[in-house]
Write a structure and sequence with these properties.
The protein folds into 2 domains: about 100 residues, no CATH class; about 70 residues, Arc Repressor Mutant, subunit A. Helix content is about 80%, strand content about 0%. By secondary structure, the chain is mainly alpha-helical. It starts with a helix and ends with a helix.
């Protein structure tokens, strides 16, 4: 076992003991809820623990703040997507409603798609969703987005490549 691996738990433990309460309190002030703050702080430390080396982190609190901000962003995106899904579900006819298990699986799939499409332009995301969810042709998408059909093909290529890359990482 390398000395870097031996030292990492000790350093992580030291950072946790010194900075967990600080981060949780900072987040509690920001979120207004101790429980949500502790969840975000815990997730932040979990992500910190996945870094290959902690010795290079000169300012652990700055790193934790950055990680916590990313976690908060992901949480807000998830909540917004969940809210949109639940609104769409509420407006669907009664016979279309799914079981809670199916709803959970569908929401998880939507979150995975959202994550996969992150970083694409809004038009590329829209083109992908129009194609995959609404079954629109490239020509129909082009009219809807005000671009050429060849541009839609480029958007789709980017989106599908992004999905492939995310799936390959999993």
């Amino acid at each position: 076992m390398s000395s870097a691996l031996i030292g990492k738990p000790d350093l992580l433990t030291e950072i946790f003991r010194r900075d967990y309460r600080w981060l949780a309190e900072r987040l509690r002030y920001r979120l207004g809820c101790r429980f949500n703050a502790e969840d975000v702080a815990s997730e932040s430390f979990l992500q910190l623990s996945t870094l290959s080396t902690l010795e290079g982190v000169r300012e652990p609190r700055a790193m934790l703040t950055t990680i916590a901000n990313r976690v908060l962003y992901e949480v807000s995106r998830r909540k917004a997507l969940e809210k949109a899904y639940l609104q769409a579900l509420a407006s669907a006819p009664e016979h279309v409603h799914t079981s809670p298990e199916e709803q959970h699986l569908l929401l998880e799939s939507l979150l995975a798609i959202d994550k996969a499409l992150d970083g694409l332009s809004s038009k590329a995301r829209q083109a992908f969703l129009y194609s995959q969810l609404d079954g629109m042709t490239y020509a129909q998408i082009a009219v809807k987005l005000g671009v050429s059909a060849s541009m839609v093909r480029q958007y789709m290529t980017k989106a599908l490549t992004q999905c492939y890359l995310v799936a390959a990482q999993s």
